[in-house]
Specification:
CATH superfamily of the largest domain: P-loop containing nucleotide triphosphate hydrolases
Oligomer: single chain
Mean pLDDT: 85
Helix content: 25-40%
Number of helices: 14
Distance between the termini: 26 Å
Low-confidence stretches: 430-457
Structural class: alpha/beta
CATH architecture of the largest domain: 3-Layer(aba) Sandwich
Largest sheet: 9 strands, mixed
CATH class of the largest domain: Alpha Beta
């Protein structure tokens, strides 16, 4: 097969004997294929020992790692176990797929136990640096070979795995953009990315140029008329289906009513509800009143998993989310389904929500798919009141720097609610291109690969 530049760099690093290899690569660059090929090469070099392939979650291992093993290791004679998470090579080598996050136990507990000769860790942007500490004691304790760790992830400012490799005496860093895989991707793939992603996300995930966040979080939001801006005037919410995006802040809950506008391929923030010091029942009553006022039909409530947490003192009690949804349905005279929320670590992170919401406000080519109804944006309120306008424009990063916006208790609750809606209802999942695929879809369903390689150290 013809390796792309990123894959060649990975193989060169393995053959050169580097012990800690960090890969930072953009979407669709061929990273996953390169990792599978590296595992096969290590097996041949070291005479059939035990290796691990670690992902963040089991669904990711199932949808990314297993297909890659079938595509690239099975033709070399590797056989898959009945359970599906282990592979054996003709020379006796073993590959075990592991997920770091556990739904029924302690995170990282699956990284305990057997000694191994090498390990690949993918999706490092969704994993804590402690994964490196957990693996250091396991890797290199089989067969007398030096330890080998390959850490891979998407472009992230200040990536911890890149720093670790730079500090390691036998480490190296491989960086790649999505253009590394241009020979295997149709030209429209890159244009679709530009039309779908925000400018900042395109720079980070396609061109591998993640920038440190600073100042206003949603600086791409333009308070002008759509389509050049994010305000919609000639439009009515009456009779439309909507989502209730809810944050259950203890003192300051916040909700947004978001209606679909399919004729313009838009979602519209119709209204916000941000009371102070109210019970969950009063909160639901206020939301119901605004829904009725606009003549909307609630399709679903979307929120934070924390709203579904039960009381430790009395786990039999209904959760805030259950009480809220039940009361809202009673006030509207409908039976609503349970609150929708995600437990996937990559969706739950604040940075993922901010990125997703930002690309809805504006993509790299200037398309805007999330607007605010102008009467709501321009609604008169006391200077101290929390409104959609004040929250969007006041949501900012700490002056001291950092990757996550400030939690100031004023602007963040409504933006949290919007983040929950975005990652649940408008998440863009990356789809790995495999042999025989004709193209890569970006429509609500994108998933991960690398760029023209820059091989450091």
């Amino acid at each position: 097969m013809n390796l792309n530049p990123l894959q060649r760099d990975i193989m060169r690093a393995v053959l050169a004997g580097h012990q800690l290899i960090a890969i930072q690569a953009g979407w669709a660059s061929g990273k996953t294929t390169g990792l599978a090929l590296a595992l096969g090469a290590v097996n041949e070099m070291r005479g059939g020992l035990r290796q691990w392939w670690v992902m963040d979650t089991y669904p990711r291992a199932k949808s990314v790692s297993i297909p890659a093993c079938r595509d690239w290791l099975k033709p070399q004679g590797w056989a898959q176990s009945e359970q599906g998470l282990s592979w054996s090579a003709p020379n006796g080598g073993e590959l075990h797929l592991k997920n770091y996050y556990s739904s029924g136990g302690e995170d990282g507990e699956r990284l305990e136990g057997a000694n191994i000769t090498a390990a690949v860790v993918d999706e490092c942007q969704s994993l804590p640096p402690s994964v490196l500490r957990r693996l250091t004691g396991r890797v290199g304790r089989q067969g007398g070979h030096p330890p080998l760790l390959i850490l891979a992830g998407l472009p992230t400012h200040g990536a911890w795995w890149v720093r670790a490799a730079k500090d390691h005496p036998r480490g190296c860093v491989i960086k790649a953009t999505s253009w590394a895989n241009r020979e295997n991707l149709p030209p429209e793939w890159y244009e679709n990315a530009r039309q779908t992603l925000s400018a900042a996300q395109y720079e980070a995930m396609i061109e591998n140029r993640p920038m440190p966040p600073e100042g206003q979080v949603f600086s791409m939001f333009v308070p002008d008329e759509w389509p050049s801006g994010n305000l919609l005037t000639d439009w009515s919410p009456a009779g439309r289906d909507c989502y209730v995006a809810a944050d259950f802040g203890v003192r300051r809950p916040a909700a947004a009513l978001i209606a679909a506008c399919p004729d313009r391929e838009l979602d519209v923030i119709v209204d916000d509800i941000q009371p102070d010091e109210v019970s969950v029942f009063e909160y639901a009553d206020q939301v119901a009143a605004r829904v009725k006022h606009h003549g909307l039909n609630v399709a679903r409530v979307v929120g934070d998993p924390a709203g579904n947490q039960r009381s430790a003192a009395n786990p039999q009690l209904a959760t805030q989310a259950q009480l809220f949804v039940r009361r809202l349905g009673e006030q509207l005279g409908v039976r609503l389904p349970p609150m929708m929320h995600t437990t996937e670590p990559d969706r739950r992170s604040i940075t993922s929500g901010v990125t997703t919401l930002g690309q809805l406000f504006a993509t790299a080519d200037g398309s805007r798919r999330l607007c605010v109804w102008r009467p709501t944006w321009e609604r008169r309120a006391p200077a101290s009141a929390r409104t959609v306008a004040s929250c969007v424009q006041g949501y900012s990063y700490p002056e001291r720097g950092g990757d996550e916006p400030k939690k100031d208790g004023t602007h963040d609750h409504l933006m949290d609610a919007l983040r929950y809606w975005a990652v649940n209802m408008r998440w863009v999942r990356r789809v790995e291109r495999r042999p025989g695929d004709s193209a890569v879809s970006w429509a609500r369903d994108l998933e991960g690969v690398g760029d023209v390689g820059t091989f450091e150290r």
